[in-house]
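Fold this sequence, please.
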Amino acid sequence: MIEFYPQLRLAHVVAVLASGMLFLVRGLLVCAGRGGWALARPPRILSYAIDSALLAAALLLLVILPAAAYSGGWLAAKLAVLPVYVALGWFALRRRSASGRQLACFAGALLAYFAMLVIARTYDPLGPLRLLTGS
């Protein structure tokens, strides 16, 4: 199954970027008070489909890669940030007028998404902190 690694990794990366871009667009629309389209059924279904593909690719990568590929704690760190991203994203995309709390949740979700990207790219659980401190 390792022979499918390049395709699975590409599928995972594309799904990560598509999920992030869709969240960004939807969040910006909600925060701008134009949540009609952002909260409608089609973009929500698209989000579920993208995130399902993302999860499937991630699980397949987890199964086919040797444990040494995700040793060092970077995957655990990324998975620890994931519920934070999901919870903040859920609060950010609520059906109500944009508030300071909703905007803060949106910004926090974007920071969590960025942290997961940095952790995944650097294979370092402290990747975002190292990026901030320059070490």
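Helices lie at 5-31, 35-38, 41-64, 74-92, 100-122, 127-133. The chain has one domain: 2-133.
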